[in-house]
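Milestone M4 deliverable, item 7.
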Amino acid sequence: MSRGLKNNNPGNIRISTTKYLGEVQPSQDRSFKQFKEMRYGYRAMFVLLHSYQRKYGLKTIKQMIYRYAPPLDNNNTDGYVSRVSKDSGVDAAAEITATNKDVMIPVVAAMSAVENGVAADMAEVQAGWKLFLDYLK
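Output delivered:
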């Protein structure tokens, strides 16, 4: 099982000062956040991508992933972008809205697959989306 799945953190979100609903504190992982249930890990991914759009004006999958998994952290960022675009069916350069369910659920599921090497559990991704909707209220 991948580290992200063990941590209920399918996006492998690194430890930071940002606190998310359902986060286990302190994390038992020295580098990555842990969540009490997978749906909270997916919610955190939706919240983080939404913040990229709101705070930094990032409007495309490519822009978001370049911030999420930058090349300077030894990531294959171009490969990551390509895979997420292909698997989600969303053009990497198309402007997207981080609150569009029909776009973001496939994008986050594809990101999870890149991060963990296995397909995302779509029921968990959708449960995370429902929690994200509560965050938006």
